[in-house]
Amino acid sequence: MSLLTLGVRDLAVARQFYVDGLGWAPSFEVEDDVCFIKVGPGLLLGLWSGEALSDEAGGLYAGDEPAPISLAHMVPDAKSVTRVLEDAVAAGAMLIAPATTREWGGVTGYFADPDGYRWEVACNPSTEPGLAILGMAAAAARIGAAHEASVSS
Predict the structure, then answer these.
(1) CA 43 to CA 120: how far, in whole Å?
(2) Distance of CA 8 to the CA centre of its chain
(3) What is the rounded distance in angstroms from the CA atom of residue 119 to the CA atom of residue 18?
(4) Which helix (H) or strand (E) holds 91?
(5) 55 vs 4, which has greater pLDDT?
(6) Which of 33, 37, 28 is nearest to 10 (CA)?
(7) What is the pairing mode between strands 118-123 and 70-74?
(8) Model-level pTM greater than 0.85?
(9) Which of 39, 60, 78, 103 sits between 20 and 30 A of 153, alpha carbons compared?
(10) What H or E segment, with its residue span, contains residue 65?
């Protein structure tokens, strides 16, 4: 995946939340139309009118509710989960679930952006097979391997 586009009700409100509130820098934007934010190596978050997205995608999106998905932001430690949740709330998010230690040993919490999209903020310290894939070191290794593969081809 290289781009995830959120269909938003009001681009200005969404941009204010992600750019001004969370401090994420736009990579490219067309005023009053679309905003792309680099959120990771090779990954852009697009903010675009929900109506325009629905029209372009064949009318697949109906109603005013966000899609039933959650987005995740992995952080290196449990204290960062709380800090990121606090930063999001200060930027205008609604706290859905505070930082909580989970039965599998990690810490997660959730917030909703102004359009209701749920963001999980998580720290996964596990090295157990099947769970280590979610950790920061595993993500860095996957990104490095993908980069090497693209350079050698």
Answers:
(1) 17
(2) 14
(3) 12
(4) none
(5) 4
(6) 33
(7) parallel
(8) no
(9) 39
(10) none
Instruction: Considering only residues 70 and 32, tell me which one the structure prediction assigns the higher pLDDT.
Output: 32
Q: Tell me how far apart the alpha carbons of residues 119 and 70 are, in angstroms, rounded to a whole number.
A: 6
Q: Which residues pair with 73 in a beta bridge?
A: 121
Beta strands in the chain (DSSP E): 3-8, 26-30, 34-40, 43-49, 70-74, 94-101, 107-112, 118-123
Expressed in angstroms, the distance from the first to the final Cα of the chain is 19
Residues 43-71 as b or e (16 or more Cβ within 10 Å = b) = ebbbbbbbeebeeeeeeebeeeebeeeee
Helix (H) or strand (E) holding 118: strand 118-123
CA–CA separation, 126 and 106 (whole Å): 7
Residue 86 zone, left/alpha/beta (φ > 0; ψ -120 to 50; rest): alpha
Q: C-alpha 137: how far from its chain's center?
A: 18
Instruction: Using DSSP, state whether 83 is helix, strand or coil.
Output: helix
